[in-house]
């Protein structure tokens, strides 16, 4: 028995519900990326970060937690007293700063990506059911969203992490559970529009289940928004993780985090500025790179932004 074409997901659907071919789509995206200076810069920074985090054990010149009391507070190589033996100098325990920065990138990647996966899963689920079913379901979900928006995310995280035992897994779950509202609001808004499209009404008339309509017709058409939101959310998640680790409620030693390095280096700002400044620069460059890439993705994948530029 052949399947009805209305049960198939129209991944590229115009206003009339007509499915468009994807031929040359990725080629056009590549050309747009090469034409965007900020997009290319963002992609370069993100790829470099992933490369460094993946091969940290091979790239790092020293054990990041190795204490050497004979080499305390050595400055970077460009400062008086510095050398290329420790390119970015050492900290108050003689640990190599460059090695610690390299290993700290792993935490930023893991926390950023995993927290966004948790938040995205929760937010997309609630956004889809609220937008598709409407009525009391929509009201309940949106009141829950309003409740989360009434309190800053960082405050939610501080409360939960104070009660729970701080750690990597706990931090990922707490950030993810408190950051889903952006996905829910955006996906709900798009779902409200998509459920009124002709191909969705036709599928409903022919007896296609609500689950299959959402899975085959709604979800693929909001995927571009999910990608954009997720990319931009990673930047915010990295800042949140660094802030919580700085306050002692996030990643716990001996695990290395840029936030922990900031916290340890703040007492030496007057004499050994590199202890806090270099992790701060790493956080700033990473966040900017992700934002640049996310802005480019939004310009390319968001039809509304394309319409404004045309």
What does this structure look like?
This protein has a domain at 106-309: MetI-like fold (Orthogonal Bundle), CATH 1.10.3720.10. Helices cover 67% and strands 0% of the residues. It is built from 13 helices and no strands. Residues 1-11, 13-23 and 306-310 have low confidence and may be disordered.
Mind sketching the topology for me?
Elements: H1 25-35, H2 37-54, H3 56-59, H4 97-133, H5 135-149, H6 153-163, H7 168-177, H8 181-194, H9 198-205, H10 210-246, H11 258-265, H12 274-301, H13 303-309
Helix pairs in contact: 2-4, 2-12, 4-5, 4-7, 4-8, 4-10, 6-7, 8-10, 9-10, 10-11, 10-12, 11-12
Mean pLDDT, to the nearest integer, reads 86
Radius of gyration: 23 Å
Strand content: under 5%
Task: Please give the CATH class of the domain at 106-309.
Answer: Mainly Alpha
Structural class by secondary-structure content: mainly alpha
Number of strands: 0
CA distance, first residue to last residue: 45 Å
The H-and-E topology, N to C, reads as: HHHHHHHHHHHHH
Helix proportion range:
55-70%
CATH superfamily grouping of the domain at 106-309: MetI-like
CATH architecture classification name of the domain at 106-309: Orthogonal Bundle
Show unreliable segments.
1-11, 13-23, 306-310
- The DSSP helix count reads 13
Give the overall shape: elongated
Biggest β-sheet: count, sense, barrel? none
CATH topology of the domain at 106-309: MetI-like fold
């Amino acid at each position: 028995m052949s399947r009805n074409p209305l049960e198939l997901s129209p991944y590229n659907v115009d206003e009339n519900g007509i499915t468009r071919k994807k031929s040359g789509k990725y080629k056009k995206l590549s050309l747009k990326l090469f034409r965007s200076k900020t997009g290319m810069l963002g992609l370069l920074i993100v790829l470099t970060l992933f490369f460094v985090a993946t091969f940290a054990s091979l790239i790092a010149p020293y054990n990041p937690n190795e204490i050497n009391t004979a080499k305390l507070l050595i400055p970077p190589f460009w400062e008086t007293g510095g050398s290329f033996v420790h390119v970015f100098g050492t900290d108050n325990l003689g640990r190599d700063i460059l090695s610690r920065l390299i290993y700290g990138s792993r935490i930023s990647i893991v926390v950023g990506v995993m927290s966004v996966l948790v938040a995205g899963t929760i937010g997309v689920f609630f956004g889809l059911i609220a937008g598709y079913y409407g009525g009391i379901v929509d009201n309940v979900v949106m009141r829950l969203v309003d409740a989360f928006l009434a309190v800053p995310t960082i405050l939610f995280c501080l409360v939960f992490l104070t009660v729970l035992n701080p750690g990597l897994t706990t931090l990922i779950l707490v950030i993810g559970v408190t950051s889903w509202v952006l996905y829910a609001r955006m996906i709900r808004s798009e779902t409200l529009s998509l459920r009124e499209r002709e191909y969705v009404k036709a599928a409903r008339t022919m007896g296609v289940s609500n689950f299959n309509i959402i899975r085959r017709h709604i979800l693929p058409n909001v995927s571009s928004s999910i990608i954009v939101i997720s990319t931009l959310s990673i930047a915010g998640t990295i800042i949140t993780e660094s802030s919580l680790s700085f306050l002692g409620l996030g990643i716990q030693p001996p695990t290395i985090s840029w936030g922990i390095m900031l916290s340890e280096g703040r007492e030496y700002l007057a004499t050994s500025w590199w202890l806090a400044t270099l992790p701060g620069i790493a956080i700033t460059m990473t966040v900017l790179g992700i934002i640049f890439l996310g802005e480019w993705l939004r310009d390319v994948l968001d039809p509304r932004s394309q319409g404004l530029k045309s």
